[in-house]
Amino acid sequence: xxxxxxxxxxxxxxxxxxxxxxxxxxxxxxxxxxxxxxxxxxxxxxxxxxxxxxxxxxxxxxxxxxxxxxxxxxxxxxxxxxxxxxxxxxxxxxxxxxxxxxxxxxxxxxxxxxxxxxxxxxxxxxxxxxxxxxxxxxxxxxxxxxxxxxxxxxxxxxxxxxxxxxxxxxxxxxxxxxxxxxxxxxxxxxxxxxxxxxxxxxxxxxxxxxxxxxxxxxxxxxxxxxxxxxxxxxxxxxxxxxxxxxxxxxxxxxxxxxxxxxxxxxxxxxxxxxxxxxxxxxxxxxxxxxxxxxxxxxxxxxxxxxxxxxxxxxxxxxxxxxxxxxxxxxxxxxxxxxxxxxxxxxxxxxxxxxxxxxxxxxxxxxxxxxxxxxxxxxxxxxxxxx
Length: 386
Description:
Largest sheet: 5 strands, mixed
Strand order of the largest sheet: 2-3-6-5-4
GO biological process, one term: positive regulation of DNA-templated transcription
Subcellular location: Nucleus
Keywords: Activator, DNA-binding, Nucleus, Transcription, Transcription regulation
Pfam families: DZF_C, DZF_N
Protein name: Interleukin enhancer-binding factor 2
Distance between the termini: 19 Å
């Protein structure tokens, strides 16, 4: 069958589609992400599918979500230690823009702070901030190293720091925090990059995307519920291997959509408990499958195996959530030492078992198996209709 989990992934072997194809979304009420289609979203169909039982009291879930957010949020002291290093490095880089003096290894055009620390969504213990430095000149490896040494020498006048040149730029660390400086160049220089001399053009482009991501976040994510949901999702990504390939950018977009995109008359933000349930449901119904919004964005880097595993993980969590197991999902409790994703668990006499893989990586000689199977199914259906 075409569509569903694993549908449309050419070259792969599909076992069986799970469930019927959902009805299409009302066009006027949906704002698609990145041009991809959206999976079934019950938020827009509550009138078509009315509840048969009263809505559960979600006050306990809301309390648990806020408690977990408090547990994984950094302390004021952690934030301040990172901010102190950020302020010093930003001051040094901005001075190089205005008065470079004898420093001529490269020309700094602009400095932009990006990443989780800038957004206010970092996790406790992650004492790292990110800058993107835009160079007017070509980003040679020698220029990056010279810039690293210049900034590090300035810092060492007042404190002990460690500097490390990386494939993306350089890192500067003291005993309390780390700042990653990511290097890019002005757009018209990108076509001139030589892989033997300069930073990789793919990496340079990714740093431009980080700037766009940061700008989008500043313009769209003012709501505190969005930031809370992002932090919760990042925490879950650390604890569930199936979510680890999902990028920060993908989680940010999903959290914003789940909170802000709703059919209400004033498009008011949804409360955290509703947005959390909606997020898990969207992931479970195919947000990160081929052709859907989650995988239509540039540079998502999810393999078919990643997409299958992420969706299966979300489907298992959705079933656990339906049985009231949110405290285990959030990491507030354990399920008698069991891995709820890899092992069967029991919730009030309801057994939740892990799902089998739907996508299987093809072996030699099976590249066209999916197309042959689909053509045979379509011929059978046509014969039956006739």
